[in-house]
Design brief:
- The protein is built from four helices and nine strands; from the N terminus they run E-E-H-H-E-E-E-H-E-H-E-E-E.
- With 180 residues, the chain is α+β, with helices and mostly antiparallel strands.
- The chain has a domain of 114 residues: 3-Layer(aba) Sandwich (Aminopeptidase), CATH 3.40.630.30.
- Strands 1, 2, 3, 4, 5, 6, 7, 8 and 9 form a nine-stranded mixed sheet that branches.
- Helix 3 links the parallel strand 5 and strand 6.
């Protein structure tokens, strides 16, 4: 159960319609070396079909192998419709991924960072790219269903809890929202 300080209610999301998709850009995020196993993290837009194997490898390592989510629940029909990013280390190996669903009014989902790369800025770098695209599309806010264990990460990014806890894929979650 969440503490009272973490259970505040918030207002509904913006209903601003997304604009046409801007050209994809390639960006590099340099993360601080303190506590980071990879001193250089590259975050770039991913094409779901082209980068399917890398996206799937990271998501299965985190959600299926580590968290025991049934494999049939991990990849879904929304993947082909979402924007995706892939984080790689200095050797070009995939270490993190996230998807963003504009049609679901700015839903962030499937944020996954390999266990050995956590606490080094990879998740933050991925989320910054999501937030940038959401702003470009004219959204006022974004939202996600965060695992309760990840709530501190999202709070550090400026998200707020917007629901009581609920179960999704056998794991306790809360809805969290972020004003852009």
């Amino acid at each position: 159960m969440l503490s009272a300080a973490c259970s505040q209610k918030v207002t509904a999301l913006s209903t601003v319609a997304p604009a046409a998709e801007p050209p994809r850009r390639h960006a590099t995020a340099r993360c601080p070396a303190a506590g980071l196993r990879s001193k250089h993290v590259n975050v770039a837009p991913a094409d779901f079909e082209r980068d399917y194997a890398a996206i799937r490898a990271v998501r299965f390592a985190v959600f299926v192998d580590e968290q025991k989510i049934p494999r049939e629940l991990e990849m879904d029909e929304r993947d082909a419709e979402c924007s995706h990013w892939l984080a790689t280390n200095e050797r070009g190996e995939p270490i993190g991924t996230v998807r963003f669903d504009l049609r679901a009014r700015g839903k962030v989902g499937r944020l996954a960072v390999l266990a050995r790369e956590r606490r080094g800025g990879v998740g933050r770098a991925l989320m910054e790219h999501v937030h940038d695209l959401a702003r470009e599309r004219g959204l006022a806010s974004v939202w996600c269903h965060a695992q309760v264990s990840a709530v501190p990460f999202y709070l550090r990014l400026g998200y707020r809890i917007a629901s009581e806890s609920f179960e999704e894929a056998g794991i306790e979650h809360v809805r969290m929202e972020y004003d852009l």
